Structure formats: C-alpha cells, structure tokens
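anyone seen this seq b4? input:
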Amino acid sequence: MARYINPFSDWSFKRIFGQEYSKDLLIEFLNQLLLGEQHITDVKFKDKEMLPETKDQRGIIYDVFCETDTGEHIIVEMQNRSQTYFIDRSLYYASKTIVDQGIRGQWDYHLTPVYVICFMNFDVDENTPKKFRTDVVLADKDSGEVYSNKIRLIYLVMPLFKKKEEECTTFLDCWIYNLKHMETLEQMPFEAQHKIFKRLAEIADSKTLTKEEQEKYDNSMMVMWDNYAVYKHAEEKGMKKGIEKGIEKGIEKGIEKGEKKRNKEIALNLLTYNTPIDVIAKSTGLSIEEIKNLEQHN
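predicted toks r here
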C-alpha cells in the first residue's frame, strides 16, 4: 500500500488544498506560484457550488474556490483527462466570477482580480503550448504589455514537468515534484529545506486516514480509474469507427457517445453508494440536472 494518497483524485485534491484545516498548504503553494506578484496571508473558502440564476442555465462546481485577504478570487481546478473545450471552461469560470461581482442596482464596475489555476494531469494536444506552465493575461497584442490584471489563467501540465529530485532548484519545483510523484514516495522530499512539506506529509499520509476517510478515498480512486478506462475505451472505439468509415469526424463522435453512455453508468453506480451529487458531477462531467434525472428514473 502506498504511503501517501494520490493527490489527483477528487477527494484527495480537496483534502490537500480545499479544507479549512489544510489551508496553510494552499496559501504556501499559491505564494510560490505567484512569487513576486502576490503575498497571501489568509484565504476564505467560498461556496464551491454556484447555482444557475435560471433553470435553463448550468450550475458550476469548483474544486477549490476562495478569496484572499486582499480580495482576489482564486479558483483551483484539477483535471485528470483531456476534455473537449477544457480551455473554454476555464475561461467561463473566470468570466462567471467576474460577472458575479456585480451588485444588483448601482455598480461602478470596480472589479477585484480573478485567478484560475488549472492542474492538467494529461498531455496537451497539438493546439496547446508544449510546456509545463502557461500564464495567460489580457495584454496588448503588439507590445505584450499587460492591459488589465483582472483576469489571470495559469495552466500547469503535470506530464510536462520532467525535473528529477536533484534538479528542483526552486520552492515551486519542489511543490510540483512532490505532487507529481507523491503516490510513489516512501518519504516526502525537501522536508529539511521547507517545513511545509512535513505538513503535506501529515495530511497526505494514508495511514492516518479514518475508516470513513479511507472509504471516501477508495471511492474517489475508483471513479478516477473508471473514468480513465471509459476514456480509453471510447477513444479506441471511436478511432476504429472513424477508420472504418474513413471519416475523421467519426473519431470524435464515437468518443463522445461512448463516454457519455459510460459516464451515466458510473453515475448510477455512485448513486447507489450515496455519493454526493456534486462529486458525481465533477467526476463524470454530467450536469447536476442530468444526475438528478438519473436518480429519479432509477
């Protein structure tokens, strides 16, 4: 049994970065990610579920949603597999948080900055820069000068972080190395240099989980493995169908159709374990409304 939990399951990610008792980890990580720009001393967790204003709109469930002591809104998302329109989704999250700052009635359009930080635990496609970290800002096209600091998106492509332990020269390098390799580690590296990693080791130690926590962790890992299997099966099936028909579009259609059907099967299975609807929605990509319909007709 691995000593440390896999940080990229839904439950584990929230345990490390999305709980009041572990927010010191989130603050330290954000300060290293935004080194030279921000120094955060405290965060206040906000409601991760944003309900739609009307029934024909779609709600949002964030992995981590918080506000800093100086007013910035920060969304942290973890995505384990490639998803159609994932970049668009992150832009939507940022835009929605900007719009939600409006107060009904009088409003002077003063905005506080919104940061969306995306852990992408999958390799990127040909349309995405082939580098570990990509920072997106609103900037002048010709000069590259930042035009507004109100929206900031940071994409971290974990498979593209290739540094070995001895090559990690910055505090942020150490963070990323530990997160990427955590499930295979016997001892948390860099504890001597940075005491926060001793705290990370305590939070992530699988031997300290209660029986209830272990069940939740096992359940989240089952969802992660099932989702990966679904994705690979749908991808292979879609590719075969596309080749047989000689139509490139058949690949994408086959993937989406197979994935949707299997995600509904996973959702139904998780409902039998009384898994919270927000966790099911995050794990399967189904909307809250779709899951509630499945629950009603099951």
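Residues 212-297 form one domain. The radius of gyration is 20 Å. kinda curious what u guys think
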